[in-house]
Amino acid sequence: PYVIAAACIDVMDRSCVEECPVDCIYEGERKLYINPAECIDCGACEPVCPVTAISQDRRVPVEQSGFVADNARFFAEP
Ligand code: SF4
Known about the structure:
globular, alpha+beta, 2 helices, binds iron/sulfur cluster, Alpha-Beta Plaits, two-stranded antiparallel ribbon
C-alpha cells in the first residue's frame, strides 16, 4: 500500500483524498492516513501531494519508516 509520512503533519492538503478511487484516505488529528487494507496501490495520490508526503510502503525513506506501522496502527482495532 501507499503510505503518508511526516510531511503531511499539520498540512493536510487533502488533494489525495479527491484523487483516491477507493476512498481509503482518512483524516487524523494532524495528518491523513491511508488504510493499508483498502489501498489498491494505484499510485494516483502520490503525484498530487503538494508536499510529497506519499510514497509506496517499500519506497518510504528509511528515516520515515515508522510511518508504515503508524498508518497501519491508525486502522487497527483497539
Ligand atoms: Fe488511494 Fe491509489 Fe493512493 Fe492507494 S495508491 S491511497 S488506492 S490513490
